[in-house]
Amino acid sequence: MRVLLVEDDDRVAGALIPALTRRGLAIARLATGAGVLDRVHEVDVILLDLGLPDIDGVTLCRQIRAVSDVAIIVVSARGEVDDRIQGLRAGADDYLVKPYDVEELMARVEAVRRRRGEHAAAEPVVIRVGDVSVDLSRHEVLVDGQAVALSRKEFQVLALVAGARGAVCSREHVLTEVWGHRGPAESRSLDVHVATLRTKLGRPTLIETVRGVGYRLGGQVARS
């Protein structure tokens, strides 16, 4: 099982990595949130600390969930009920408060992977509209069989709209999930990203604007 540990404390990581490796896990570690979204499709489970130096862990959790169905376990010293609720609502599958027993962590890792595996087997991860294919799990977009290179945020926006499968995806939801804020600057950036997506995909009607509400996919949605 491939695990990405997102932990800024070298002492915690130094003790946890060998302990998990001895139990048969393949561990990669990042000390900051930078680079996490580029690695989510390479791993089975993410162990996510919330107290990161460059980004709030809850915001990062939302960003991960916007582009991937990877299992996420928050492992944090924030142990208040409100903290746990916030983490779970951001998309985490489980929440473990530090300090914890390694065997309990292993049990939770195995449990969330088992649940995620069952979910993945039942749920489609590729959404098709005409000749456009959006693979949510592989972070890949094909147009007429050809791969289209998108920036991280462009894919996140497309993934959210595609994930709604024809229903309207509100601007507020996209702004919160991708940017973490809903200010004027972020709103303008969203408009630019949608316009860029339409140009890059070469399908200007793929993402329809629902005035005053948000966006939805244009055309008949197929799932696989």
From TrEMBL:
Residues 124-219 bind DNA. Keywords: DNA-binding, Phosphoprotein, Transcription, Transcription regulation. This is Sensory transduction protein RegX3. GO terms for cellular component: cytosol; protein-DNA complex. SUPFAM superfamilies: CheY-like. CDD domains: REC_OmpR, trans_reg_C. GO terms for molecular function: phosphorelay response regulator activity; transcription cis-regulatory region binding. Residues 124-219 form the OmpR/PhoB-type domain. The modification 4-aspartylphosphate is found at D49. PROSITE patterns: OMPR_PHOB, RESPONSE_REGULATORY. GO terms for biological process: regulation of DNA-templated transcription. Gene3D superfamilies: 3.40.50.2300, 6.10.250.690, Winged helix-like DNA-binding domain superfamily/Winged helix DNA-binding domain. Residues 2-113 form the Response regulatory domain. It comes from the Bacteria.
